[in-house]
Every structure is written in structure tokens, then in C-alpha cells.
Amino acid sequence: MKNFIYPLFYLLFSNCLLYSQDSVISGTVENEEGITVPFANVQLMNAVDSTLITGTSSNELGFYQINNITDGHYLIKASYIGNESPLRSITVKGDLKLEPLTINDSAQNLNEVVVISQKPRLERKIDRLVFNVENTAYSDGDVWDVLKITPSVMIMNDKLSVKGSNSVGVLINGRKINIPYNDIVNLLSGTSAANVQSIEVITNPPAKYSAEESVLINIVMKKNIVAGYNGAVYNKYVQGVLPKHTVGTDHFFKGKKTQLSLNYSFRHDRDVIYYTDITNFSHDDGSVSTWSAEQEYLNNRKQHNLSLFFDYDINEKSKLSFTTITLWEPDKSRVYDTNTDLVGDSRWSSFETLNNAKKQKLNTSYYLDYIQDLNTEGAQLSFNAHFTFYEESDSQLLNTTFFDTNRELSGENQFTTDTEQKLNLYSLQGDYLTPLGEESTLETGLRFAGIASNSSILQQGFDRDQPGIDPSASSAFDYDESIYAAYAQYSGKWDHWKLKAGLRAEYAETEGEWDMERQTNERNNFQLFPSGSIQYTPNDKHDFNVYYFRKITRPRYNSINPFQTFQSTFSTIEGNPELLPATRHYLAGGYTFDESYTVEVFYKNKKNGLSELIFQNNDSNLLRFISSNIDQESAYGIDFSLNKNFTNFYNSYLLISFYDETFKFTNLSTSELVELEQFSWFVRSSNNFSLLSDRSLTADLNFIYTSAMLSGNSKFDAFGALNLMLRKTFYDKKLSVSMGLEDIFNQGNQFNTRNYKDQNGTSLSRQENRLFVLGLRYRFGNSKMRDNKKSKRVDERNRI
């Protein structure tokens, strides 16, 4: 098989299409005598309100380059040790090489420039949405909070989805975060949003990225464009039913060739969730027994987050970057207290279960990047290496007390479960980028990724004779995965057209070995994944686009292990070593008017979708949570969105989506095919206000409402939330204080049902929805550019 793959990789390098690219602004910085100025700060600002968009520094030769700039109107200037160049108005329509920016001493005599806070706004590009969140009212919160208000992103029960897909990958500065999903939630919940410049929702990921994710969310961290050192300390306090607290510190340093960012936070969360679960078990004699469970789930967790980003400019053409991200949970305790009442059961009237669990976890990742600019202008060679180590241990003690039909004590059951998991993830990738003429580029690359996982379990004290139960007593499961990939992708634009397309090939080898049954599962899989986007912009008012992709989701190590573990005496969590990879197609097309009003239609189809499905066993009165394949998922719909600055202090984003979806899966107990169909819609609105003359007070008002929808083999009722966040800066923006309420009217409780064939159950989840949030952040060090010192008055600049 491999002999077939390598020639195909070569062909992929030689046959591709064209796609779009953003523009590059370049030039030099000089003094009045025409001598170049090294290490000068260069700023690019919004032409309308002088909002700082991005910046860079000139190199040792006085040359600067700003990449990934969307065509449009901007202001640019350079500054050095209090002196600066005159403000210049520019229009970007492709790569732009400017005349030198001349710094002069007389600039110090000009009036002060007021660089206002950047309002959250949405930029629509050919393959992504860019949500600018810098300096919003959520800046004193965490990144997870910002994702909750990011356009197109939906978070329900801490489950992340975009455009109905939960196959979402998370990047930080373009680097994929290769850790389990729950740890991504923990990582982002402990990362300060003040360090985030923007969030890119990549709806059609380029071929250079893994074919596993339908959507990528790239969290773009701020670059330190100020020479020297600066830092910050911050605190976030959240009060629901129980308190939650995060403290942290950020440190940045920039020298002539180096740039360093170090971030640490400690988080102590106490949460409570209440569940009401009702299951109607039907029996062969026609009788029905109803089990009603009231559960209180208490969670107490301490977590440390540490991240480091280091960049070193070896020379003008070579750059080395090192990144490390570590998440450590030394102590997490969970208590499940469940009281279950039984109606129609001949053995018991009720039983009470207390589950005490403890967990420790360590997750540490390392990334090394090398970039080499080649002699041909625009040509580049880059390499990336990655390694992640993950270790988790979990133990639980479960006690159950049974009461007979006379409500007398009739028996007790106690058992323990100890699990441990270790895994190593590693990857190596090389990429080559070369221009093809002035308006197109070719990018190709190779990648290898591997996973080595070991899981073990020890359960003692359970009743082996209980019908329907076959738990793993003592067992180990090893899983190895190797993926070989190659891709080719071109970019190009001409006249009013932009086209982007690529092809990725992946060959996967997986092997799982279970010691209990001496069972080994091996699978080999080779597939091609095309993707493409086309954009037509006849003028500034109208924009048309169409895009398509094919993706895959492979079962993860934690879902294919064959263990059957207890969640309570009558519920189990089960892996499935027979899971198949899920493949999906997505096609969409849209129209945007005046960069503000967008309509988009879409169709998606998924085969063998991966999900945890809930099935009731009516013979043994057992609930089983099983990792499963959904035979087919399909949906079609239409989105309407508005993104507009109504005034210079008010920005609004509105999205309304209507869609019809169908799920087909096999009912476990009857082996019958079940089809669920649901017409759904949701609306979300994000409104940002910049108040006071100096824009030092910002307010964010956000609303979300979701109608009835399908998830797995359950149907969820409608729910919604209204959130308000305020942020005020003091002392020349060194100190910021934020305060807000989440789910003001407490409408976020979620109710779901399973009602088909022999399945009949409901579940109500009541989380800490209404939350009071208080944030505090103080910056110190060289946190100011010498650019806000003396330029022109805002009202004068608006005439440019």
C-alpha cells in the first residue's frame, strides 16, 4: 500500500488549483537625512476611527513587512524613541511597497493622538470569519468566554460546535492544540482573553491542516510590538451557586532579535449541576416501571496553566519559534449524590447512590517551528515538530443502598474503580511555499503524526450476576495510530475573482490490543480530501462565494477502548472497538451586500458520525452510554447575518439560521434503523458599545436562542440566554475593571427526550446558568507605544 502512496504524494505536488491570498505591505523607515532606522515601531490603523489593527518593527536594515492584510483603506506611521513619521493614508489593493516612512524630530511638537479601543467586528474572508475581540468588555475574562460570543460558534454543555459540526479543531497562532477535548475547554477557560487579538473561524480549512476537522478556530494572540518589557496581573471572580476564582500573570519581552511571552494562571472552580432523569422501562409482559432519579453533581477542581511563546530571528531570512503549553490538575474531586424512586418495580421502591471520585491530570505540549525565507521573493520553507505527553488517573468509590417495596433497608452494594491513561502524541511536518507569478502561489507539504496510548482499569466489588452487566474487572488496552499525509494547494487572484483549492491525501494505520480477550484490531485506510473556495467581487458593494470540502473524523483512543465502567449501579459508560471513521461533505454558497448583509445556503452529509448514544436495556433496567456510529446525518438550511457599525460607538452582529436535519442510527436492543428528523432554528445577537469621549467604557450585550434540536439520539427543547458585560479602563488604560451577568433571566436549563421504539426517557439539566462575573487587570512596564504621543487630533485625522 505504501508503495502506492508515495508516487501519489509526488503527483499531488504537481497538480493543483488556484486560491486567494491576503496582501503584504512593505517598505523602509528613514530619518530626515535618509538613513534607515532599525527597530522602529510601525503601526497600521483603521482609516475610519484610527483603531490599531496590527504592527511590526523594522529590522536591522530598517526594512519592515506587514503580512495578511485585507484590501481596504488604512493609516500607517512609524515611531522611534518619541519621534515619528507623519500619518499617511494608504489604499491596499494587492501587495503594496511604500515610499520610506520618514521620522523627524518635529513630530514631538504635534498634538496627541487618541488611539481608541478596537471594537469587536467581523471580517469575512474567502475561507474564514475573523472576529476582532481585542479590548472588548470580555478582555478581562477568559478565552472560553469570548468563544461563547464568537459568530458562528455554538457552545452547549461545554460542547463546541460550528455550523452544526462538532468536528472542531483549536489552534493557537496557527499551531494545532493536540490534547483531549475536555482539556481544551480547561486550557481556554484558564487563558486570559486580554492576550487575544482575534479569533478566526476557518470554515473551509486549507489543505495543509489535518483532514479531521471540518472547522478550525485559530486563536491569534497579540504580538508584542513594543521594545522592552511589559506585563500584567489579573483576577477573575465568578459567583453562581458556588464561587469560582482565577488569578494569573502575563509577561512579555521584545529585544532586537527575540520575543518572549510567558503566561501563568491558577484556577479554583467549584460547580454544581442538578439532574432529573426519568426512564420508563417496558417489559415483555406489558408492564412498565418508571425510574426517577434526582442527582446532585458537585465538582471541586484546582488547575495550573502555563504557556510560553518564544521567537528568535536568526537573521533577516530565518526564524525559530518554540512554544510550550502545560495544564496540570493536581486535585479534582467529584461527588455524585443520586436518589432514585421506582414505580412499578417488584423488588425495590428506591435506592440511594453516593459516588466519590478523584482525578489527577497532567498535559504538556511542545512545538518547534523553523521558517526559512528563500532567495526568490515570497518563497519559504518551514518545518514544525510537536510532542504531547498526557497522563490521567481516576478513582471512584460507589456506595448504593437499596430499599424494598415497604421502604425498608434491603441491601447495600459497594465497589471501586481505578483507571489510568497515558499517551504520547507526536508529529513532524514540512511545508514549501513558492510564488507563481505576481498573483498566485503554490504550497505543498508532508506530515507524519503518531499516537501511542495505554489505558488500564481495575474494578472491584460489583455484582457479576446482575443481568446486562459485563464490566471490565482488570484489563489493559493499547492503541497505536500512524498517519502519513501529503497536500498540495495553490492560491491566485485576478480581476474580481479569487480562487482557492487544494487536495490532501492521508493514509492511516491503527492497531488496538485488548489483553482480556487477547483481541487485536488492525485497520488501514487511505482517502483523498478535496477542498475549494471561489469568491467573486464585482465591486465594493457585492460579494459572492461558494465553497466545498470533504473531511474525516477517526475514532479517538478514549472512545474505542473496550472497557465497560460504572457511572452508577444501573448505568455504564462503554467504549466501542468496532467504531468506523466518519466522513462528511459540506457545500455552501452565499452573497454579501455592502460588507454587512449576508445570506448563505448550505448542505451537509455525514456517514458513520461519531457520538455517545444513550440506550436503555429494558431487561435489566440499565442505562448504557455507548460510543457509537450514527449511520447517516444530513442537513440543509439557510443563514442570514448582519454585521454593521451603526454609529462610531455601536457595532452589531446578528445571525439567524434555519435548517432541517435528519439522523439515522441503529437501535441497540432491536437492531432496527431509527430515523429522527427535526426542523430547527437559532438566533444570536452581539452588540458592542464604546462609551464616553475617550472610549474607556465598553459594554457588550449578547443574546442567544435555540429552538428544539437533535443531538445524538436525543431531542433537546428550546433554550436561550441574555448576557451583559461592562468594562472600564483607568490610569491611561493601565487598570481595567469588568463586571457582568451571564444568563440574566436563567433560561439556559436544558431538557431532552428519547422517545422511539422501545426507548422512553427524559433528562433535565439545571446548571449554574446565572453568573455574576468580576474581572480586574493591571498592566505595568513598557506597555505604551511612543506612537500615541504626538500626531494629529482625531477630528483632523478623520478628514484624511
Would you kindly provide a written description of the structure presented here, covering whatever features stand out?
The chain has a 22-stranded antiparallel beta barrel. Strands 10-11-16-17-14-15 form a 6-stranded mixed β-sheet, with no helix packed on it. The protein contains 5 helices and 45 strands. The chain is globular, with a radius of gyration of 28 Å. By secondary structure, the chain is mostly beta strands. A hairpin with a 5-residue loop joins strand 37 (673-691) and strand 38 (697-706). It folds into 2 domains: 23-113 and 793-797, Immunoglobulin-like; 258-769, Maltoporin, Chain A, CATH 2.40.170.20.
What's a quick, concise take on this entry?
This protein is mainly β and 800 residues long.
Total of helices:
5
CATH topology of the largest domain: Maltoporin, Chain A
The main sheet comes to: 22 strands, antiparallel, barrel
CATH class of the largest domain: Mainly Beta
Q: Let me know the average pLDDT.
A: 85
* Head-to-tail CA distance between termini: 63 Å
Overall outline: globular
Residue windows where pLDDT falls under 50 for at least 5 positions: 1-21, 106-120, 784-800
Write the CATH architecture name of the largest domain.
Beta Barrel
Helix amount, in percent? under 10%
By CATH, the superfamily of the largest domain comes out as TonB-dependent receptor, beta-barrel domain
Gyration radius from CA atoms, angstroms: 28 Å
- Count structural domains: 2
How big a fraction of the residues is strand? over 45%
Number of strands: 45
Structural class: mainly beta
Keywords: Cell outer membrane, Membrane, Receptor
Pfam families: CarbopepD_reg_2 (PF13715), OMP_b-brl_3 (PF14905)
Main location: membrane
InterPro entries: Beta-barrel_TonB_sf, CarboxyPept-like_regulatory, OMP_b-brl_3
